[in-house]
Amino acid sequence: MERTALRRRLTWQVGTVTEIRQETATARTIVVDLPDWPGHLAGQHLDVRLTAPDGYRASRSYSIASAWSGQGIELTVEQVPDGEVSPYLVEVLKAGDPLEVRGPVGGWFVWKPEQPGPVQLIGGGSGIVPLMAMLRAHAAEGSTTPVRLLYSVRRPASVIYVDGLKELAASDDVDLTFVYTREAPPGEPRVGRIDADLLQEKAFAPDDELTTYVCGPTPFVEAVADLLVAGGHDPSRIRTERFGPTGGPR
Amino acid sequence: MGIVSPGFTGRRRGGSDLPPGQYLTRDFPVLSAGPTPHILTEHWEFSIASETGEVYRWDWQALQALPAEDITTDLHCVTRWSKLGTDWKGVSLDTLFEDVETGADFVMAHSYGGYTTNLPLEDLLDGQAWIAYEYDGDPLAAEHGGPARLLVPHLYLWKSAKWVRGLVLSDTNDLGFWETAGYHEYGDPWKEQRYAGD
């Protein structure tokens, strides 16, 4: 099956939630069986549409967490305080419920297994979700492309996909570094944000073949992308996905 | 068509003055495909290239010397947030196009950083679009497209190219960056033209 046609017309389809996994206190993974799903690329997202009994509707976009497997999709949703759709997805939705989605969308923040060159992934918080799809696609394809992940989280309990990540990190081709910004686990001395020294030590050096994917809250992505550019990385080889408020002008 | 979502009632943060499917935000989210370019105004340049290859150029001083307008407008992002009553200052595209001779119907906007987006020329004229360089009384911040961005508020915000550096006129409607990646070629928020084929 064709993995994706970028300009295919997108229609809404109704899937069935088959499983829900709690990832952290505020994030959970929703497994959706979608018989008509056309497939997707690692890093793409979809729209979820909720409809109230009186016909009122609300939609939001979410990154797809799963690699294309032919069985539907997995979403991991972090609850947004004062949100409208995420509280429903994280607290109300249950296995067996229908879920209406449309996608996949986005042809830029994606990794394709045939893409040459190493891959640097840098995620902050729930910014790990599309990066996890890339790591899963990498494993599913048996790709030997070198991949490094820097995953910035507040504390060990904030890590999404902790077991899956440790499993993937056992691969010779995947190098995984957790960066704890508030509280580190025992034996891990460093607490703090990603900085130039850490990038120098743990991330791939600038390279013409390298593709870097940065996903997270806007201030995180701004800071990391600026550090990469200052460190000599070609801006055109850095792909970013931002979410949430800026903390900037209101 | 569609379903009722069991247990969903909605918080209804929309309003009658919002296009369909949008919700209101007071914040100003940032969405960009790559690192934020930091362009110094002394290095900034803006050009319009006609379909015959004639190029019209403005540096920062030339832009500042043109009559500016205060613009109060609503913004609608395809990711579904809308922000109402935002205040900008900039130069109308009508002013910049005054001496441009063209019979072209389409424009590709090009940005520092490599971003592109396509628009019909008629959507940039008649008081509908600006090169904006102030937001809320301050110089436009780099993360929001400063020093200057295109502002075409009647279309989804991805059409308002940040860090704009030039417009290229064309007889053909070629697709820009997001349009090639599955987004709608025109992007009218009131018709919910989000993705190709909507």
From TrEMBL, chain A:
UniProt cross-references to Gene3D superfamilies, sorted A to Z: Nucleotide-binding domain of ferredoxin-NADP reductase (FNR) module, Translation factors
Keywords: 2Fe-2S, Iron, Iron-sulfur, Metal-binding
InterPro entries: Cbr1-like_FAD-bd_dom, FAD-bd_FR_type, FNR_nucleotide-bd, MRET, OxRdtase_FAD/NAD-bd, Riboflavin_synthase-like_b-brl
Required co-factors: FAD
Signal peptide segment: none
Source superkingdom: Bacteria
Xref: PROSITE patterns: FAD_FR (PS51384)
Entry coiled-coil feature ranges: none
FAD-binding FR-type domain segment(s): 10-111
GO molecular function list: 2 iron, 2 sulfur cluster binding; oxidoreductase activity
Name recorded for this polypeptide: Ferredoxin-NADP reductase
Source organism per UniProt: Kribbella amoyensis
Automatic annotation (TrEMBL), chain B:
Organism from which the protein derives: Kribbella amoyensis
PANTHER family with a match to the protein in the record: OXIDOREDUCTASE MOLYBDOPTERIN-BINDING DOMAIN-CONTAINING PROTEIN (PTHR43032:SF4), PROTEIN-METHIONINE-SULFOXIDE REDUCTASE (PTHR43032)
Chain ranges of the Oxidoreductase molybdopterin-binding domain: 34-178
Protein name as it appears in the record: DMSO/TMAO reductase YedYZ molybdopterin-dependent catalytic subunit
Region (Disordered): 1-20
